[in-house]
Structure formats: structure tokens, C-alpha cells
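Weekly structure sync, notes
Attendees: PL, DS, HV (note-taker this week)

Item 1: Prephenate dehydratase domain-containing protein
DS walked through the input record. Source organism listed as Tremella mesenterica. Sequence as pasted into the shared doc:
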Amino acid sequence: MSIMDPSTSKISLAYLGPEGTYGHQAAQVFLPALSEDVDVELIPCPTISDVYHHPSDYLVLPVQNTLAGSVTETADCLLSPLASGRENGKVEVGGIKGGNPGPSRPRIIGSTDLEIAHCLVVRRGVNMDDIKWVRSHEQALTQSTIFLHTHLPFATLHPWRSTASAALSLLQLSPEDPPGDGAALCSKAVLTLYPQLELLYEGTQAGNDNFTRFLLLSRHPDRPSICPIPTSNFFACRDSMTLSTLAQNSKLKAVHARPAPVEESSERYPTWYLVEVDSSTIYSSLDRKREDTVKLGTC
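Item 1 (cont.): predicted structure, written out as C-alpha cells:
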């Protein structure tokens, strides 16, 4: 079922690019719910923050992984509305500026779980013994820690903006790159896009039960959840008191804690919370602290 206005002829969907990332694959999973009788323009963005701030109709963001836990940049983006209106949006959380990003603050309207299988890829002709460094998104590096320590114990690790951009960078080396031959961790789909790359090892993640949850966000305030029966509500909470209220009155599904701006609290370690609760939560319990809570959406 499409959630678009029938009069709409084209919509846009931003994701962490370039083509071939897991975010690109997640975007394609969401397409059937968005593209009935309309054209969808997929827009790759270089970072998660760029996705969140892009004025596209819809956004795809990774939020958590079974092996590496929370995707911190996404959590920071989703918590940034707590800083809205403070010093004209100059307050930052985790490096993310507050205020309304784009035409309207995006709302969570859907989610999907994507199975993750990382591959070690190199430029053709490079062997395992030649590899001096490995780059990928920090989540992929974390999920592949055991493999890297076992097979490439002396290789230096370099976090990159995304898995596919790390692979593409192997074909665009510059004098600023580390010396020696390098490798990247990415999806096998990248190999079909760049035939100059070669697969050395498939399945570098620790175990086969590796999934990343991706959220679909909409900038249109009247768009309903794409989930036939929504089961989760998401909140941004400014303090532990509000988190405690949620815990007492609902079933908590997930809590992602992130450092808050120091000026937001007298505490030494101020913390904001991205909270997922069962959709049966009774919101009246939050009335007294409404200013400390932002509902982020339902899926």
C-alpha cells in the first residue's frame, strides 16, 4: 500500500551512499510501500548526518545492530530535536546541531531488519599477505573484530563514512592514503558495481546471526506508519526521570544513551535517551514532563 498522495508524481528517498551500501539495500526494501504509481528518486548521501538533514521526502537510517549495538550517529541525529529552540539551534548533541533539519522534522514511520554479511574486498591482484590497512564504516569494523585480529593482526583499521564508499576509495587512491595495499569491508553487492574489485573473504562478521535495523522517516507530518500493525513508539528523553516514568508505565524495548550538551545540565555526565517502547504505552504519564520528551514516531 502506498502512503503517498495520489496526486504526487515523484518523491525522494535519501540513504547513506554510495550505491551498494546496506542503507541502499534497505531503501530498496522500503520502496514497495512508497512507490505505488509514483517515481522514487534514491539520493545517496555521504554521511548519516547528511541523510538526516537532507530535504528528501523520506530518509533511511541504520539504528542498531545485533553485534555492534547502537549506531551512535543515528542516535545523535534522532535526539537533536531536544536541542531545538535553544540558542537558536546552536546547541549540539554528539556533534549534531539542533533545530529543525530541512522543511520539517522527520518522523519515524517504518523499520526493517536487514541481514548483514561483510566481505573483504581488494583491488584485483592484491593478496591477503599484501594488506597493510583496512577501512570501512565503524560498525563493520566492530562486527568483524575477531576476523581482523585473526587474519590481519598487523593491519591498521580506518573508520570510513560507509562500507561502499570505503570499497570505492580503493579505486581512487591518493597520496594522502596510507602506504601499501589496502582492503575494505562491504556488502557483496559492491562487487557487481565495481568489477575492478576482487573478493578475498566472505563473511567476516562474528557469527551468522548479524542483522541491522533500519528506520524509515518521513518529513510529511500527515504520513501514517507503513506498518500494518505498529508495535513501537520512539521518544527522545532529556533526563533519567522521564526515562524512569516511561519504564514504569510501559514495556521498554530499547534504550540508546548518548552524551548531552554540557550546558543542558548541571550533572557531570549529562545524558539524553533515545527510547523505544511498546505501542500500548499510556502517554498521560508523560504529561507532567512533556517539555522533556519528544515523540519521534511509530512503527
